[in-house]
Amino acid sequence: MRAELLAVRRSRTDRAAADAAVRAALALLAADLGTVAGYVPLPNEPGGALLPGLLASACRRLLLPVVRPDRDLDWAVYDGTLAPAGYGLSEPPGPRLGPAAITEAELVVVPAVAVDRSGVRLGRGGGSYDRALARVGPGTLLVAVLYPGELVDRLPAEHHDVRVHAVVTPDGLTRL
What we know:
The chain has helices at residues 2-10, 15-30, 51-58, 128-133; strands spanning 35-37, 61-67, 73-77, 83-84, 90-91, 107-111, 114-116, 121-122, 141-145, 151-152, 166-169, 172-175. Helix 2 (15-30) packs parallel to helix 3. Helices cover 22% and strands 25% of the residues. The two termini are 21 Å apart. It has a single domain, classed as Rossmann fold (3-Layer(aba) Sandwich), CATH 3.40.50.10420. Strand 1, helix 3 (51-58) and strand 2 form a beta-alpha-beta unit. By secondary structure, it is of the alpha/beta class. A seven-stranded mixed beta sheet has the order 3-2-1-6-9-11-12. A three-stranded mixed beta sheet has the order 8-7-10, with no helix packed on it.
């Protein structure tokens, strides 16, 4: 299923418009918040390369993930610059705040390949976000970012899966 959904993403022809709509919806969610945890989209991921800058302009402090050697996520403040990192990712070059820094976020925006209607999130399979999301408190809004057709009826769930509370697509926010 993951491979099929990623193939559909690669073939999208409406990416620029879809990414702009996703960023607009996320800007409304992040507006005036203190700390938001986001991510730097990979090529073909919703939100596009402009997502970190948009989130940073909407909130007071944006944390972006830094993948540790054990594939857990550390966090660093986004100051407008990114550096190449492992796994083909980009990350902030500043000081590392530790894996627990995500607990300071009022909103956590996460990548996903798909999400089902009960909030089960299908990632890329490394488990990095499952470990990070397990640290987030119950009052923090967890939002996955998707393209149309990636909110599905049902996905397989495992005991360690942390469910998201909502998804943002080009059509806006959908609470689950």
